[in-house]
Amino acid sequence: MIDTAPNLTLVVVAGALAAVGVYLLLERSLTRVLLGVIFLSNAVNVVFLVAGGRAGGAPIIGSTDEDAMSDPLPQAMVLTAIVITLGMTAFLLALAYRSWQLNHHDEVQDDLEDRRVAARAAADLAAYESDDDETRTLEQEAADVHDETGAPVGAPPEPDAAPGSRRVESAEGGDVR
Amino acid sequence: MLLLLVVHAALALLAPVVVRRLGRKGFFGLALAPAAAAVWALTRTRAVLAGDGPVETVAWVPALDIELAFRLDTLSWLMVVVVGGVGALVLVYCAAYFSATASGLGRFGGVLVAFAGAMLGLVTTDDLLMLYVFWELTTVFSYLLIGHYSDRKASRRAAMQAIVLTTAGGLAMFVGLVVLGETGSYRLSELLADPPTGSAVTAAVVLVLVGAVSKSALVPLHFWLPAAMAAPTPVSAYLHAAAMVKAGIYLVARFAPGFSDLGVWTAIVSVLGTWTLVHGGYRALRQYDLKLVLAFGTVSQLGLLVLLVGLGSQATALAGLAMLGAHAMFKAALFLVVGVVDAATGTRDLRRLSGVGRALPVTAAAGALATLSMVGMWPFAGFVAKEAALEALLHEAGTLGGALVLAGVVVGSMLTVAYGLRFWWGAFASKPTADDDEPVTVTRPSLVLVAPAAVLALLGLVLALVPGTGEELLTPHAATYPGEAGHLVLWAGFTPALGLSALVLTAGAALFVARARVERLQARVAVPLEADLVYRRAMRRLDDAAADLTALTQRGSLPFYLGVILVTLVVLQSVALVGAPAPSWADVRLWDRPAQVVVGALAVAGAVLAANSRRRLKAVVLAGVSGYAIAALFMLHGAPDLALTQVLVETITLVVFVLVLRRLPAYFSVRPLAASRWVRLVIGAAAGVVVAGMALVAPTARVHTPVSADFAEEAYVFGGGRNIVNVTLVDIRAWDTMGEIAVLLVAATGVASLIFLLTRSGSRFRSADARGTGYVWAGVPDRTAALRRLGGRPAVGGRDREWLRAGSTLAPQRRSVIFEIATRMLFHSMVLAGLYLLFAGHNSPGGGFAGGLVVGVALIVRYLAGGRYELGEAAPVHPGLLLGLGLFLSAGVGLLAILAGGSLLESVIVEFAVPVLGPVKLVTSVFFDIGVFLLVIGLVLDVLRSLGAEIDRHTEDAAPDASDPDAVDRDDDGDPGGAGTPMHRTTTEAAGAVATGTGTREGGR
């Protein structure tokens, strides 16, 4: 079993990078958030190294004696993590660019929908339009219900507007500018 | 039984097609499924009576011990006959009931058949978990059927109410079933043969009863059933009279033999049963809508049924089973009759109906037969069942509880008589109607519409004439209850039970005769608390509470959310760290190699300076420094693969950053909020300390041998490679890698869709497309234009060929001969290097990831040297193709291994000799790595095309030429577009446009 005593240098590096990463992550500018993500991911990768145990030779059979190798498993995990961070970076950059295109800055704004829900909750308004109508009794509702039979008598009740047709048009049209 | 279920499922799926082809007649075909079930059960009657009904078991989820276990015993037999028989009749009825133009008939037919199938499964399954699955299926199908008229508010509300209540009950039941299954057995028959005991079991049984109460609409959850009358009438007849509401009765009857000796069982069953019986009857008496009269009547009868099958004595159980069959017949018949009346007159309001009996004598007769059975008149099935019930309850009447139950049943039966008479009188009698209502006109219904009701009503009479047969058929299940055996008889002489029956009929008739007074009395008695209203208010409160909670937690602020998550991490991990044994200093090494300290300090310094920087580019470059330092750390640790990948990724990241940053403001916005900055600093520091603490404690806490201990041997023997990290990626943990490259694919697609707003693909920017679109990157002053003009002359022929194919599309001031030549020389070497890394990666550092990244860097170089058209020339494929092909190859290798007889993603090693090259060892996982390779190239290409090429185009579209002083200057020179530039050669139209002074960039437009 590989000696797993922690390497203090790596521990300190991981801690410092994590601190910087978290500090940047809590910013509103997407570019800084992204830098935070990168630092944080580097920090976690270093933690993986520490968890894998002491340093050693490259884990390649033939070039290093098996006892002198570093642990290959955390390396495999970290390798994919590095590449995924690249994908994440590209995606966040695209987000930042899109934000700049729309708002001419790359700062994360508060979610308007959440604000709206909060405002409605504070005003004790229903969050959505309910089908429930407390003023109508079971008997009244039953009297309006008729099946689509071949019945000649009794005009069919006025159907309510279909739920979809009442959808509120969004004021903020996102991509459609 | 499985076959029957499959038939139901198939017909349900085919129903829309069948109904579209055949119209309403299609329902005759759909009726075959439930009819087959009923006939099948009837043919098995003898075996069921003998106690060896058919049993089927198919393993389904062996890991969870879930089996498709089915078993037909007496109770199941009764339920299958009821469900199948009534189902077939109702479907036949549908063929005549709906108008030919009614909407959604195909879906309706499909769901109805599917419901019949779910019900069949529910009553025949012998597995607790399957029972729950079928139970919830009936709930869902019932929801769809109640909400059939989805454009009506009342239907939607009723459907929602029904599903909320029955699903809540179903979830409670599920918990109960799991507890029962864990303490006893998941096999229903084994569980009941040897019922477990204990307080957990008692609680579980109560939970199961909650499910039954919700499904069978017992007080206080009864109100969904009357509201569910918003469903089409055939649905009311089937689901809400014969089948679904009987599921709760079935459950009680199924569990009663095992658990009815529990005190809490008896208490719940007798209190709720009696209460429901009386309450339903009382409410039915004051309804004017025929369907509502029946609905509340059904609620009342369900109370009676639960009481009878749940009390746990053999005699009541026999009466209960007989009642179950009788009720299915008369109540379904009555609902169908209401449908006939409704279809013929257009109303169900008994105040408006008059003289219908004279116009529809057959329907009225069928209604009369069914009503007589319901009120318990001699010689109908209802009478036989009720006599048996009264007889059995009289035996139990010695105790206070028994006496109260008997009194409840007597009162409930009186109410039943009263509302039964009210129903028939309301539907068919000739009576004065309110003055302002016109008398209804009646159209004659077809025979198909009346026949099903008549059949069911007549059966209620015929079966009552052979009570002995009924007793013989039902006794096997009743016999599983304790106590004395009961009997079903048509005439038992003048017994106390007969006296009670006479009392019930007389008092009920009196209640009906005095209906005006009763109605007035009911109107005066205020109901203190209507369950329906309580439910509505509770749902409203729940919505309010949910909105308040949402407002409290969903603040809409990303930093707030992240802060909460990170603080939680810090707190939880701190608690864990405090409890963990701290490593002593002797356990800690300062460094493995002293160089680590230097490189580590560089990484940290880069990060800190980047965080402190106000200039975007500076921050990014410093972050890059930190990243390269991390790569060095990897190298020092003995991880060359990681170092290689990290260097390549840092490079690409840096380039991509710069591509985007050219569009963003140069400086971060000023952040004056000092307080929040301190908060961030504190959280950051705390997180850093916690991460360091975890890194310190976790390695010393390892006690087991790492799984990677044997990786070296496994990698070589099974994976066929020497580079353990690479073999881990493509073989040992290939599933992980596949998931991770799928993430890359998603990220690449996300980037593209954020940038290419209108089309996913965009154009491929081949140099031929550049004709007439002006120069790329022309937005900087062209200070050397004059020089070029002097020395320039049009190049002709092959001697002055371009170093890069699309180099001439670049603005002249952007071009660099040195860069172009270097690119020309480097590009192919880099691609080859990438390929080498890909194939050598199995045995030395490299692999698909590194190889793909190297090729990605090569593409970046081409793009930087020659602009977007050069990128198109370098990689004239769609990135989507590379991404898809990559994932397909990786997954395809897995399938290949299966073909070769191994397990998914297992490597196959093929060794053979090639004459010149010598022995070749081919490991199939190399194809997996090729997939990774292609996918990574696709990722880089997609990112370049999006964040590079497409943003270029946005920039050019956005900036009008006039705002570019340089462009204006050049045009003012009157120079015809720089005759000496290669542009002149390749794009003559562009040059011409430039000559007319429209500007170089959008020259062709």
UniProtKB/TrEMBL annotation, chain A:
Membrane-traversing stretches: 6-26, 33-56, 76-97
Renumbered residue ranges of the record's region Disordered: 127-177
Record-linked InterPro entries: CPA3_antiporter_subunitC, NUOK/Mnh_C1-like
Membrane topology: Multi-pass membrane protein
Pfam families recorded: Oxidored_q2 (PF00420)
Keyword Chloroplast: no
Subcellular localization: Cell membrane
Gene3D superfamilies: 1.10.287.3510
Swiss-Prot/TrEMBL keywords: Cell membrane, Membrane, Transmembrane, Transmembrane helix, Ubiquinone
Coiled coil: none
Comp. bias intervals (Basic and acidic residues): 135-149, 166-177
Superkingdom of origin: Bacteria
GO CC, alphabetical: plasma membrane
Family: Belongs to the CPA3 antiporters (TC 2.A.63) subunit C family.
The protein, known as: NADH-ubiquinone oxidoreductase subunit 4L
TrEMBL record, chain B:
InterPro entries assigned: CPA3_Na-H_Antiporter_A (IPR050616), MnhB (IPR007182), MrpA_C/MbhD (IPR025383), MrpA_C/MbhE (IPR046806), ND/Mrp_TM (IPR001750), Proton_antipo_N (IPR001516)
Domain MrpA C-terminal/MbhE positions: 679-755
GO CC field: plasma membrane
Gene Ontology molecular function terms on file: antiporter activity
Domain Na+/H+ antiporter MnhB subunit-related protein: 818-941
Membrane-spanning intervals of the chain: 77-98, 105-123, 129-146, 158-180, 200-225, 262-280, 292-311, 317-338, 359-380, 400-425, 446-468, 488-514, 560-582, 594-612, 619-636, 642-661, 681-701, 741-759, 821-840, 846-865, 877-902, 922-944
Matching NCBIfam families: PRK12644.1
PANTHER family: NA(+)/H(+) ANTIPORTER SUBUNIT, NA(+)_H(+) ANTIPORTER SUBUNIT A
Name of the protein in question: Monovalent cation/H+ antiporter subunit A
Species assigned in the record: Cellulomonas carbonis T26
